């Protein structure tokens, strides 16, 4: 009996949901921005000292330009809501690319500061603000875990970019390292133009919708309150206070962890390893607590998160004991890592997606309080007491205040508003 073969039958290959391509852009932008601007910053200090004779304090002063992102966040958020996320990301990445590509031509200290200003100004518009907006637009039912995955870009950059820069510096020079970062940023601009679309169609959203879409458009499905109504609500100020309290973790705690461990008698090698575990646990926390936010609400999850940070930053005061160190540092990293993803979902839940950029931009501007006070508080703690124990205990109290503040944010507006 002859055997007939159906050569026209093809095996169906599942396509990747468009939303994943979209959110990969802020993931990669965060990897480049954080990997170069924070994790990899110290790699360039000695080469710049040798080349220009600048002092370490002069070079490190450029980190103060991170505040620029907070200052312009409300403007970027408004532009993002009005004209689209793609344009904001593209322009921001272009600024970052210029900040990197012109570094080899520096001759004066003010050149370093001006280019640092461009670099850090581009960071907020390329990764922080767009991440929440795009995740909210493309992912509804799974936005908790997807926001966690998107926020892992910071950790990914910390793991990948510094070794890459170190390799380039070994084989070439700091100039070539900055050119490499600039080229990566330019390539990401083109990828953004191809991958990002601000508004998915109803058919593309598919099972991401909580209910059958019918003939409604996405603009009718995605709702949200106005900026004016948000500013009139008690929930806005309760959420903003909790975020300000929580962001002290970045300015007052994270930069001091290795120094604190060494002061407690831990060797530098072990302290560095502990910080790597801290970063890995941060990635785990982003995903797990993002998933939890889908089950019990982002607000309750963030309350748990802040209380967890308060607990383990307090325990970390006695990290001279190996047992306490290997418990407190990884678990603090677990809760710390999830914070940046969770507070964005809390804002979405309370105020919706339509004006998310403008509202989140105003809240981001308030973080200047923590970034301005945190380093001073940490420095005073060490100068007066000879340790960071006081600042660790103080920030633990701030975390608890942030958790308490969230209990007053009880008036969320439904994120999906159906137009009839």
Amount of helix: over 70%
Helical stretch tally: 21
How much of the sequence is in beta strands?
under 5%
Number of strands: 0
Major sheet: none
SS-based class = mainly alpha
List segments where confidence is low: pLDDT < 50 over at least 5 consecutive residues: 3-14, 211-217, 412-420
Write the H/E string, N to C.
HHHHHHHHHHHHHHHHHHHHH
- Name the overall outline: globular
- How far apart lie the N and C ends? 62 Å
Calculate the mean pLDDT score and round it: 84
Plain-language structure description:
The structure is a single chain. This protein has 420 residues and is mainly alpha-helical. The chain contains 21 helices and no strands. The longest helix has 30 residues, at 109-138. It is globular and about 55 Å long. The termini are far apart. The model is unreliable at 3-14, 211-217 and 412-420 (pLDDT under 50).
């Amino acid at each position: 009996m002859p055997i007939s073969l159906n050569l026209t039958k093809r095996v169906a290959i599942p396509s990747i949901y468009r939303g994943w391509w979209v959110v990969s852009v802020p993931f990669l932008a965060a990897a480049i921005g954080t990997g170069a601007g924070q994790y990899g910053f110290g790699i360039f200090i000695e080469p710049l000292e040798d080349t220009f004779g600048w002092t370490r304090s002069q070079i490190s002063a450029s980190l103060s330009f991170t505040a620029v992102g907070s200052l312009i966040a409300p403007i970027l958020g408004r532009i993002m809501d009005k004209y689209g996320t793609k344009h904001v990301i593209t322009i921001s990445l272009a600024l970052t690319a210029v900040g990197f590509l012109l570094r080899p031509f520096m001759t004066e200290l003010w050149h370093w500061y001006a280019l640092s200003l461009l670099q850090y100004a581009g960071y907020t518009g390329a990764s922080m603000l767009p991440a929440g907006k795009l995740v909210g637009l493309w992912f509804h039912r799974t936005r908790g875990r997807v926001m966690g995955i998107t926020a892992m870009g910071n950790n990914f950059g910390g793991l990948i970019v510094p070794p890459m820069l170190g390799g380039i510096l070994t084989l070439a020079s700091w100039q070539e390292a900055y050119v490499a970062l600039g080229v990566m940023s330019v390539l990401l601009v083109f990828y953004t133009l191809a991958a990002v679309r601000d508004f998915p169609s109803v058919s593309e959203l598919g099972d991401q919708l909580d209910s059958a879409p019918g003939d409604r458009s996405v603009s009718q499905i995605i709702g949200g309150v106005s900026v004016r109504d948000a500013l009139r609500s008690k929930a806005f100020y309760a959420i903003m206070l909790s975020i300000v309290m929580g962001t002290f973790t970045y300015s007052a705690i994270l930069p001091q962890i290795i120094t604190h461990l060494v002061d407690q008698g831990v060797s530098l090698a072990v302290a560095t390893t502990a910080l790597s575990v801290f970063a890995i646990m941060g990635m785990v926390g982003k995903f797990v607590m993002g998933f939890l936010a889908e089950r019990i609400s982002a607000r309750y999850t963030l309350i748990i998160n802040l209380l967890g940070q308060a607990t383990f930053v307090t325990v970390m005061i006695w990290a001279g004991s190996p047992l306490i160190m290997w418990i407190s540092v990884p678990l603090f990293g677990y809760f710390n890592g999830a914070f940046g993803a969770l507070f964005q979902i809390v804002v979405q839940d309370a105020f919706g997606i339509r004006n998310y950029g403008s509202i989140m931009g105003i809240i981001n501007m308030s973080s200047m309080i923590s970034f301005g006070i945190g380093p001073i508080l940490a420095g005073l703690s060490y100068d007066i007491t000879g340790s960071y124990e006081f600042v660790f205990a103080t920030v633990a109290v701030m975390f608890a205040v942030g958790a308490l503040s969230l209990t007053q944010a009880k008036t969320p507006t439904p994120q999906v508003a159906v137009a009839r």
